[in-house]
Amino acid sequence: MSATSTIEWTDATWNPVRGCTKISPGCKHCYAETFAERFRGVPGHPYEQGFDLRLVPEKLAEPLKWSSPKTVFVNSMSDLFQDSVPDAYVEQVVHVMQMASWHTFQVLTKRADRLKNMLAAKLSSAASLDHIWWGVSVEDRKYGIPRIKALQEAPAAVRFLSIEPLLEDVGKLDLTGIQWVIVGGESGAGARPIDPAWVKSIRAQCERAYVPFFFKQWGGVRKSEAGRLLDGQTYDDMPDRTIHVVRSKSDRLMMINEVEQWPKPARIGFQATMQSKLTA
Ligand code: SF4
User: What is the pTM of this model?
Assistant: First the structure.
């Protein structure tokens, strides 16, 4: 977990899961994989196992230790709803978000069907909470548009789209029930190009639908040079955050203690890694 983040649309990141598997073209140059694989084999490093999936239950209580309210990007280095993360562990992660209600949690996934199904069932008590925002990644029409539909069908109080890396003109979007749209181009080595016309089309649709629009970056190989101005201005709109009271220190200590007593998940990360090695 990082108490600060360089990601433009959040304050902090929290990673009770590490590692992921690629699922669609937006994953091709996954920044999390590039970062994690740099440390594979480094003894004691959080990413000693590279980008292999790993649950990190010792990180579960961390948002409860932050006394000042933050926006928190959940699993910036993974995807909470990937198949190999057991339901029981997803429930524990979400339960912490429910407890730490003074923060605003931003949960972003490419596994929109599992998000929808769990919000309608095992996570239903969290679905209506306004301090947990549920989002899906949209990189193109083929994979992204069905995710938007699944998100719209999910019983979430706050829904958002992260249209990044924007890989093509996504066309006319149905923004019904969507409270926030983030757009960005791909960055880093081999970044696929973005067309300003695609971004302007999304901006115009957000303006017509009164949906807050956040333009994160143009991206490219040197993203700092490309910047994030669109027609000479920055776009940093976000939904209004609901301010909930920060719980007292003694309350927080009690909650931390409770979380630390929860049953620990099996070492599924290790098992998943072995499984993939055995079936490769
Ligand atoms: S879903 Fe996200 S974290 Fe997982 S591989 Fe794709 S881009 Fe990376």
Answer: 0.93
